[in-house]
Amino acid sequence: MAVAALCNGIVIDHIPCNSLFKVVNLLGLDKMQNSVTIGNNLDSGSMKRKGIIKIADVDIPEETLNRIAVIAPNAVVNIIHDYEVVKKHKVELAEDLIDIVKCNNPKCISNNEPMHTHFHVVDAEKHILRCHYCERIVNSDEVALI
Known about the structure:
By secondary structure, the chain is mostly beta strands. It has helices spanning 20-27, 62-67, 109-112, and strands spanning 9-15, 36-44, 48-56, 76-81, 84-90, 96-98, 101-102, 118-123, 128-131, 137-138, 144-145. A five-stranded antiparallel beta sheet has the order 2-3-1-4-5, covered by helices on one side. A four-stranded antiparallel beta sheet has the order 6-8-9-10, with no helix packed on it. Strands 7-11 form a two-stranded antiparallel ribbon. A hairpin with a 3-residue loop joins strand 2 (36-44) and strand 3.
């Protein structure tokens, strides 16, 4: 499979296959007018199989890209200018996550009142989160994005 080189934009690489379309939704790619290439179940030396997203002619804020860390903790973001990678970095999980993750406690006030969800990162390495309101612990495999 041949995919055209990207002149300007971003490439998000090393996305777990089961998280690829969550990342697509998080970035709102269905509403974007830019050229987007999505690859899934591609061979990877380090992951066996991976997903990748290429978006032409776009600058996405760093904090938006770092939201990806909630569902794809080892993703790598490449910033491309004139066909060259000018910056490459892993996504980082913020200490507080607001309006990103839905609390899985049906009795939590964030599920019953019009308010922002708010989670604290308890363990960044294991991706363990705690709801600010009800203190429910959410593991990475239980994360539901808003």
